[in-house]
Amino acid sequence: MKKYLLFVVSSLFVLKSFSQQDPVLLDIEGKKVTKSEFLQIYLKNNPNPKYDKQSLDEYMELFKKFQLKVIEAESLGYDTIPKLKKELEGYRKQLATPYLIDSAMNQELVKEAYERTKKEIRASHILLRLDPNALPSDTLRVYNRLLEIKKRIENGEDFATVAKGKMGSEDPSVVNNGGDLGFFTAFQMVYPFEDAAYKTPVGSVSMPIRTRFGYHLIKVTDERKARGTLKTAHIMISVPKGSSQDEIESASKKANEIYDKLKAGENFEELVKKYSDDPSSNGKGGILPAFGTGTTTRMVTSFEDAAFGLKNNGDYSKPIQTDYGFHIIKRVEWTDVPTFEVAKKELQSKVNKDERSLKTQESYVKKLKKEYHFKDKSAKTIGWFNENIDTLYFSGKWNASKLNTNKTLFVLDGKKFTQKDFAKFLENNQRGVKKEDITTLVKAQFIKWEKEAILNYEESKLDKKYPEFKALLSEYHDGIILYEIMTDKVWNKAMKDTTGLKEYFEKNRANYMWGKRANAMVYECSNKTIAEEVYKMVLIDTINSKHVLDKINKDSELNLRVKTNKYDIENTPFLKGQANLLGVNKIYEFDGKFYVVKISELLPPGQKELSESKGIATSDYQNYIEKNWLDELLKRHPIKINESVLYSIGK
Length: 651
Description:
By secondary structure, this protein is of the alpha+beta class. The chain has 24 helices and 21 strands. It folds into 5 domains: 1-75 and 467-507 and 613-651, no CATH class; 119-225, Roll (Chitinase A, domain 3), CATH 3.10.50; 229-336, Roll (Chitinase A, domain 3); 372-462, no CATH class; 513-607, Chitinase A, domain 3.
């Protein structure tokens, strides 16, 4: 499924050329693709392109299949399905956002963000929660309460004590951290909080700051030069929440034993593979997402401090404890704060998605008003709403059925925006409004509607003003309908057609076979001496695996691991190529470990049942359905390819 989406997202038109000198390469029911269009797509999907006949033919096959599916989806009206239209409209809104901003102010915010990434702030906060749509009286009450707390702190009371005390901070983490949020940089907090923190001097307490969470008092306790970005790996010995003291001590002992092995020269990546309990990283050498300046990833403070304390790439720490367990951290790569030119593109993207982008929209609306000769007519026409909106509005039950006029509220680019337009907005935006006097309510809603209407008008013109916007929107359009038709015609069809799947499986039974299997108890030993001791114990029938584990791991948790399963011998690396006899097999080494394998049963190759191979059989059945469907589409939608044009590419 993923390969189709990847092809869609990465293979459509960026810009279209209609030059008469640009020959048509492909024609499918009147939809023409020129040589330059195809070349652009080909280069986009092939960073190291080849222009030989085989390479061009292979890519053309993919392109033909893609075009056939899109044409079929359009012919069946997939692009008119309401849920898909709504989804496309959502994408359109996202794509439009970078075009609906004040570019000059946006660049100022990008520069501001860059300057902030060069410095890290440490701050504590006290939060009083407040609903975004709280009444003015509730807002004032919370604001004044924070002013009283601020006065207490400035008069000498300890910030953390006040934060944790009765009627203090409502942030649940305050119990553990006293309000201390550690060090952070740009984009790691919501923008209003970040902005206030960077503007508050060290040692000072800010005025109450409002975010979507409520009101905050912020005390800046320290600042430092940004430490840059760090890529690390770790070996983690997990300590689940609620573990006993014995379990914690056992984990600590295990971590220290691993550390001793590192000091003795053993390979970090091999120890990760053998012992780390972090499933997200133990298959890739313990590598973790980069954290620090310029990232949204934050580690717990003790982990970050230990990691940044490592001086050289390749250095590793002593075991450190966090809420998750014990970690041995290896420094992989450190990167200093990049130059503005290097960071600019990524910062631009973050600013466009951040709350700070709202500031640029306000400025942009003012520019659009000037560009489109905005005329405000509301002074004489807004009164109807002040007189006809009542308390039903606050319960979401108001409607504008009484409105029998349609006077103009404002004019933009010669287009009139009327009372009925505003009334529709009011009806659709009744939820969550503040309970306040009607005149204030109408004024606030009018401001929101005016801004939304102006931005929507500009958005409606983006297709004509920006060819790259139109092309990108076309990508999303084709991607959405292609995914939907593939779901209906191939993926879901194979999942739901149980009869067809059974018939397909019966016709292709030979493709679904078990290899030779072993029902085995596997003892994985850290060295040969331990393996020899395990081997002697396993030979005694009265001794079970628990007895073996208890004895062998008495002094070290790293000595022995035991696992049992029915193993497919050819597909199990540590069994493939071994003797694999019934009973206890002789000791052998594989991939740095020593194995004692006790086989209780050997199962010969045999036919799998559908229930045992349903995943792979369903995937094969999907491919079968798709092939037959594409054959039908090719008959229904003939494709003409100008091969001379195709093979002239790259010449």
